[in-house]
Design goal:
This protein is of the alpha+beta class. The protein is 28% helix and 15% strand. The longest helix is centred in the N-terminal third of the chain and has 18 residues.
């Protein structure tokens, strides 16, 4: 029984880390499908970045500077 608690904590940490690893989106990223611009055009409501694609973007396109 004493070994189950550390194993559970390690498993939870790994799941959270793996789910976050494939995305660079921050708290400020708010991607919205802009059907007025086209059927697959996504725009960020925060910074105004625009991209095309069938799926919701998983990376922040904000200009760093």
């Amino acid at each position: 029984m004493p070994i189950l608690v550390p194993l559970l904590l390690i498993a939870v940490f790994l799941v959270l880390w793996l789910s976050r690893r494939g995305s660079t989106l921050g708290r400020a990223c708010r991607w919205r499908l802009d059907r007025a611009a086209g059927p697959e055009v996504w725009s960020c409501a925060v910074c105004g970045a625009v991209t095309e694609g069938a799926k919701t973007p998983r990376h922040c396109l904000r200009e760093r500077g």
